[in-house]
Amino acid sequence: MTTERPLPLRLTQELTDKELFVQNSGIVNFQFVPDRPDGNLTIAETGKHIPFPIERAYWINSLKAREAVRGKHAHKELEQVIVCVNGSFRLHLDDGTTQQDIVMDTPKIGIRLGAMLWHEMTNFSPDCVILVLASAPYNEADYIRSYDEFINTLTEEIKA
Ligand code: T46
To answer: Is residue 75 flagged as an active site residue?
Structure first.
């Protein structure tokens, strides 16, 4: 028997949190100002688009290896918004019960990565640039890097 995996979600302006049914996530529509022929401007403001005060930003590029994998962890408390500012990649989300894949290929829409959400990034285009806005400074103690530990922590939280 084969288990069917749902088709990856495509980011469009019409998309709502209803279609993104994995828990602790959400769609973030940024303010977009097309300035043709002088390029486009995309804006993220705390309170308006980002549901937390931004304490840290980091960006990822040079994703030339087809087989590159990033993420593969959850955070205990950190809140983040991830956006593909150039190129494309695939974002895999797992709340411990439900899994969903999203094709990240627009700078206009971000995805909220809430606490206790397992996430993996793959299928990077060579020109892919990822920006992440985070609610706190880097803290390795906030990471859960083992999937078994992630599931056990969720089970303990349900029992408590
Ligand atoms: C996340 C996803 C979306 C730091 O020292 N400071 C930092 O702010 C960051 C982000 C990383 N690092 C160090 C920690 C590791 O030794 O850089 C190394 C690589 O980090 P990591 O393996 O966590 O990178 P990714 O791309 O797998 O994950 C990153 C973020 O770390 C993570 O919080 O949610 O992007």
So the answer is: no
